[in-house]
Amino acid sequence: MAKYIVRRILTAIPMVLLITILCFALMHFAPYNAIDAMTTPKMSPETIELIKAKYGYDKPLFIQYLRWLNGILNGNFGYSIVTKQSIAGDLAVRIPNTIKLVLPAYATAYILAIILGLLAGSHKNKAADKVIDGISSIAIAVPSFWFSMLLIFILGYKLKLLPIVGMHSVGKEASMADFLRHFIMPFITLTFTFLPANVKFVRSSTVTQFSEDYVLVQRAFGASRGEIMFKHVCKNVLLPIITRLGMALQLLVTGAIITETVFGWPGVGPYFIKAIQGMDYPIVMIILVLSSTLVILGNLLSDILYCITDPRIREMG
Amino acid sequence: MMKRNEGNKKKSRSVRVDSVLLSLKHDKAAVISLILLGLIILFALIAPFLPVEPNATNIANRLQPPSAGHWFGTDEVGRDYFARVIYGGRVSLMVGFLAMLTSLTIGVAVGTIAGFCGGMVDMVLMRIVDVLYSIPWMILVTVVSIFLRPGLKSIILVIGFFTWMEIARLVRAETLSLKEREFILYAEFSGVGIWKIIISHIIPSVFPTIIVSATTSMANAIMTESSLSFLGVGIQQPMSSWGSLLQNAQGTMQNTFYMALIPGLLIIITIFAFNKLGNLLRVFVEPKIMNDEKE
């Protein structure tokens, strides 16, 4: 098993490097770059050369790349072209805000999905299944931003129950109750977004397990439905679900871009969209590198989890 | 001999049709959504011949609620919202369709070439797939969209060029197993060129997979387009899609909620219907899979 894990880690490293190269190339070939942002057309060519030399833009490309990569590895993500703020500093505020929203929403969706999926899968084609599966099929087709508009209209405008924008009211930054009031709508939206695909996944793997021979054998020996369900089926269904956790890792940074933008939640979402609109390449590229690294790490994690939890794979490795 | 073969063919076709009809019988939602989708597509196609004008403004008549004269009301500069929704659907469906064609073409080409050639070619192509796959789609698509001037053409290209990876993987896996089958081995042995084998043997054999992926791909493309347009990096004024209509509706939502409601419902119906269509096609190409046991 250790050998397998080491091999997996070794294949993940070149992937991350490839992504940083891709990012750097995109940044380099962008129609508008950091030099254009620092210089004005009125400056003399000599001044521009001086500025280039000062920031290292006169060096060969691969040296620039190595310096940039070295910076990222040391936590120096560079500076925004537009606001000149340190990107690492901005992200240190933004990412925790996103996590505060995504983590509870994903956890809720995950637990609900297991319960609903098992319920639907074990009662295939009965009323409970039809309702759960039907609603998930519709929910998959609902754009998350439209769902949040619905919530804003009903809970925000009509009933006037909840604030529609931001994370805190002005002057109430320390109040937990105020935070929760802002939290409810984006939380519901995100839970609703994460839920249906997970329910469908759990349901279809439950249905598959129930059609396996071992269930038939258990039935023949007179085991009760509940016994089969909790002693055998559950175990086999939960294995692949645990590995889905790894794949959800990147959601902690980029899982709520649309929802955060709609509700003006001060997380990574609005920061990213603003950077896109303002052509703020350094920010965009750092988020690209960060989220892709998390995807690769997440896949690695899910393979390792699979390896640890599933004895069949453990033996093979 | 010929006759028996034909008889078998006919029989297998009727089994396919029967299983599709059977699953339709159990799924009223699919029937309704497919009929609605048919209507939406029909309206989108005949829009230029309808007596509606999506760009005619009438300030005196702004923000009117739905009525007999304006079925879906009017927007903030008095344009007929019914016309705008129909023309929006035209754009959304067209983006979905063309983006799907693009991504299908790339996916099938990469998948068959990687699977059939193997070796270095396969390695390189699949690493590209892995890398693109590791970037969250939302980030990938938005990043690329800033390199192109926002608009209809670039959104089709962006979605088409960056959503083919899943199809490529599916097609590659099938090509790998097809490669070992006798008819391909024989074709190879008798000196038929790679391109001819790929085009006349492999692609027809993976066609069922391609068709099923096409519906999913279409649904995803429509969803991606509306999200991007909603965020303001997709379709730009004066052209509008369902997503950009929703973005526009956000501002006046408090008083004119119908403007936010209608395009959203149409997106839901369209995506739902395409997903159902995908399930039906899956039943059609593999009658054994009734319902979704082997998803």
From TrEMBL, chain A:
Signal peptide: none annotated. It comes from the Bacteria. Residues 95-302 form the ABC transmembrane type-1 domain. One of its GO terms (biological process) is transmembrane transport. Keywords: Cell membrane, Membrane, Transmembrane, Transmembrane helix, Transport. The keyword Transmembrane helix applies. Its main location: membrane. PROSITE patterns: ABC_TM1. It is found in: Cell membrane. This is Peptide permease.
